[in-house]
Amino acid sequence: MLATNLNKYGYRIRTRSGVTVDNLVIQGRDEPEAQQKLMRMYPGCMVIETRDIRPACNTNVCSSFEDVVDVLAADR
User: Is the pTM of this model over 0.85?
Assistant: First the structure.
């Protein structure tokens, strides 16, 4: 199974009934794919705002259990 790199995109939309929905987060390989998923879930909606959500830390860095314990022990 191939690993795909999925990004998260945040949306603020107005549904076709006029209700504003904030903080919708959708994963996709790119922004157009995420928006296609959004349009399937909320047909006829209007996108008010789009933002790219980045992880808070570098996900390429692998931490061992010992590294995590060292960080927690340093706070004491």
Answer: no
